[in-house]
Amino acid sequence: MYSQTEKSVLLLISSLASFLVPYTVSSLNVALPAIGSSFGLDAVTLGWVTTAYLLIAAVFMLPFGKLADIYGRKRVFIIGTILFAIGSLLAAISWSGSVIIIARMIQGLGGAMVFSTSMAIVTVVFPPGERGRAIGIITATVYAGLSLGPVLGGFLTQMYGWPSIFIVNVPLALIVVVLTILFLHDEWKDLKSGFDSGGAVLYGCMLMGIMYGLTVLPSPAGILWIGGGVAGGYLFFRWEQKQERPLIRLSTFRTNRTFLCSNVAAMINYAVVFAVGFLVSLSLQYTRGFDPATTGMILLAQPLVQTVVSPLAGKASDSVEPAIIATLGMAATTIGLGVLLIVLPSGSVLWILAGLVILGLGYGLFSSPNTNAIMSSVEVTDLGMASGMVSTMRTVGQLISLAIAMMVFSVVIGTVEITPDVYHQLERSISIILLVFIGLGILGIFTSYVRGTVRNHESEE
């Protein structure tokens, strides 16, 4: 058992760490046009400033979660936070588009280590009756990062230039490292576990092939990459079936419907929401002429609602079946996308704000209960894997979201710098992307609804 003080300190550390990545992502959405102007980047290459982080994080999230189970979650958490700070510093001093993309890849390694360990530690420390509330608080800090990101990012970009949004990460990361070293004394590791290095390589090849292929579709190279990823996936699943201590316990997916459907629903949810801030930012700044600070204030509506709703939804999921709350959230998210599809091209700013508020309500209702369902549906020995899957599904979903956007941009606009000559194609692209997201949202509602319950498993704990 852990004391209330230890739980409070852990929540503070996890919350600060969980703030860093979403702050960077949301502030980056506002700064992307400025970054594109600095380095003369086209829309597709500009998308790689965000995609590079997600691709690396997706590949390494689950292996780092497993390594943390073996060598200590605290140790991996600290190393990840330091790496994220190094990547932030390199991004701030970048002298070309290639350098900032490399910096984002380093941040991806750090982010994978942080997010694959923090939720597992929280799940160990907080029992089922308190877990939903704790997850809700951490999720709220994620949304606080998303909330402050557009405002701070817009202000910093306008006043001090886009590099300043990365500089802010460095002192925050150092504070997290110092607090972790001083106040967290357990390592939370399972010395009996073995690392499946062969599975990790095949898993990485599978994700890299599929995810990179999606980002370069509809080119023939994209099809070849996806084909290679699918082949890697086949080899990965065959390999895992023969391992005594696999990277992923495949039986968990076969026998645990709640775990399977909750993970798929999470991936879909992030796929339909993540690129929306990027799309709205491009629409407002390019076609409507808003400056970064004003755009940031408008984008604030969605994460602000998420920040308020998420802890309430997480606490409610301790007593109400998480599937019910999460499914309502997915439905609200889909409705919000429909509103934005209608009003974004020419509607008033108030209607755009309404669409973002509905989207934020849905996201807030979905995320905490869904994470609670995933973490509560597995045994303690699988918490590292489950935490890694939570983060992996989030990252893969975000990557799919951007891949869909980049593919549509590539087809409709092409690899040209965004100028007034292509504004019409830009708006048409955004409408097509939102239509795809709505279709995926409907699928997510069904997936969330059929997941089953977690109450029986919690009662056994």
Features:
about 0% strand; Growth Hormone, Chain: A; about 450 residues; disordered C terminus; mainly alpha
Q: How do the strands and helices of this protein lay out in sequence?
A:
Elements: H1 4-39, H2 43-71, H3 73-92, H4 97-125, H5 128-160, H6 164-167, H7 169-183, H8 197-216, H9 220-242, H10 250-255, H11 257-287, H12 292-299, H13 301-316, H14 322-343, H15 349-376, H16 383-412, H17 423-449, H18 455-460
Helix pairs in contact: 1-2, 1-4, 1-5, 1-7, 1-11, 2-3, 2-4, 2-8, 2-16, 3-4, 3-7, 4-16, 5-12, 5-13, 5-15, 8-9, 8-16, 11-12, 11-14, 11-15, 11-16, 11-17, 13-15, 14-15, 14-17, 16-17
Strand content: under 5%
Which residues sit in consecutive blocks of at least 5 with pLDDT less than 50? Answer: 455-461
Elements, N to C (H/E): HHHHHHHHHHHHHHHHHH
CATH architectural type: Up-down Bundle
Number of strands: 0
- By secondary-structure content and strand pairing, the structural class works out as mainly alpha
Main sheet? none
Full CATH superfamily name:
MFS general substrate transporter like domains
Write down the overall mean pLDDT. 81
Outline type: globular
Structural domain count: 1
Q: What is the count of helical runs?
A: 18
What is the radius of gyration computed over CA atoms, rounded to a whole number of angstroms?
Answer: 21 Å
Q: Roughly how many Å apart are the termini?
A: 14 Å
CATH class: Mainly Alpha
Helix content: over 70%
CATH topology: Growth Hormone, Chain: A
If you had to describe this structure to a student in words, what would you say it looks like?
The protein is an all-alpha fold. The chain has a single domain, classed as Up-down Bundle (Growth Hormone, Chain: A). Helices cover 83% and strands 0% of the residues. The chain has 18 helices and no strands. It has helices at residues 4-39, 43-71, 73-92, 97-125, 128-160, 164-167, 169-183, 197-216, 220-242, 250-255, 257-287, 292-299, 301-316, 322-343, 349-376, 383-412, 423-449, 455-460. The longest helix is centred in the first third of the chain and has 36 residues, at 4-39. The protein is globular, with a radius of gyration of 21 Å. The model is unreliable at 455-461 (pLDDT under 50).
